[in-house]
Amino acid sequence: MSGEISPTGKRSSSGSSPELRASHADRDRVVDVLRIAAGDGLLTADELDERLEAALSARTLSELTALTADLPPVSATVGGTGAEVKDIVRIEQVHSGAVERVGRWVVPRRLELAVTYCGVTLDFTEAVITHDLLRIDVAMTGKTLTLVTRPGIVVDTDGLQLVHSRVKYRQTPTNPDRPVTLRVELVGQKAHGRMVVRPSRRTVGQWLLRRLPSLSAGA
């Protein structure tokens, strides 16, 4: 074989060392590949659980390689979305309907927002993430720019210039042992309106599960 299969399913050069230590980012990329494969029916629930456990405890890249060696690459299209992983996506809209990216949308490496008086929502709750950094170039006037996060996603707004605008940032509860799976960096200018960064809202079932311990204690 001319090269090993990388954790993302791509072939690497034959000169790479199979005993290189795996990073948190390497493990997270394999976890994403496995979950996408299960969603496409390539893995059973038991196989997924077994491989996820192995991925999270893997110490070397060669251990991760074995977990994705029999799965198709995810470089061309991602999962059942049929969409390509793009380097740059540009969105241009003026005085029109809201812009929404929700569900299993594929996160590009760079997103350009050129939007005037149109609300924008980027929901990462179920988004397909294949890399660890997203740069968003903002040229937005009016309305609200909303980013919905999930555990493992951090948002950096230090490079964003605010003109008659404000940012409301609600942090996702953090676990110090959980690695960062995606860093979102915003640069450019947001004029008028506001920007909101928040975790996804709990469902009724999740709220009840959270309340059960306190209700039991008070009984």
Structure description:
24% of the residues lie in helices and 31% in strands. The chain folds into 2 domains: 1-75, no CATH class; 85-199, no CATH class. The termini are far apart. Helix 1 (24-39) packs antiparallel against helix 2 (45-57). With 219 residues, the protein is α/β, with parallel strands linked by helices. It has helices at 24-39, 45-57, 61-68, 204-218; strands spanning 88-94, 99-101, 110-116, 120-123, 133-141, 144-149, 153-163, 166-169, 182-191, 194-199. It has a 5-stranded parallel beta sheet with strand order 1-3-5-9-7, with no helix packed on it. A 5-stranded parallel beta sheet has the order 2-4-6-10-8, with no helix packed on it.
Euclidean distance between termini CA atoms:
64 Å
How do the SSEs run, as a string of H and E? HHHEEEEEEEEEEH
User: Overall pLDDT, averaged?
Assistant: 80
Number of helices: 4
What fraction, in percent, of the residue positions are helical? 10-25%
* Low-confidence parts: 1-5, 10-14
Structural class given helices, strands, pairing?
alpha/beta
- Report the radius of gyration as a whole number of Å: 20 Å
Shape: elongated
Q: What is the count of structural domains?
A: 2
Strand order of the largest sheet: 1-3-5-9-7
The number of E-state strands comes to 10
> Hey, roughly how much beta strand do the residues contain?
25-35%
Quaternary organisation of the protein chains: single chain
